[in-house]
Prior knowledge:
There is one protein chain. The chain is mainly α. The chain has a domain at about 40-84. Helix content is about 55%, strand content about 0%. The chain has four helices and no strands. The chain has helices at about 10-20, 25-35, 45-55, 65-80. The longest helix is centred in the C-terminal third of the chain and has 19 residues, at about 65-80. The chain is elongated. The mean pLDDT is about 80.
Amino acid sequence: MPKSTISRRPQDLDDAINRGGTAATNEDELDDERLHTVNIRLPMRVWKQIDALRKKQPGMVSRNTWIAQAIEDKLEGEGKTGTG
């Protein structure tokens, strides 16, 4: 039976393990960035309007991205006027 060689871990690996890590963000920030899925029912004429506007933008913008951006724009506008 061949003799196995046991090698020691390099010292810098031990130092890295002993240093540990830090938390990336606090839990509230993580919750705010967590995605939530919803279903939305809109008349076909609205979907057609959305698709027409999406096609005017440079590059390919998905419906989901377009709707999310429209909501963000609305929220920003409502926040600036102080209503809502």
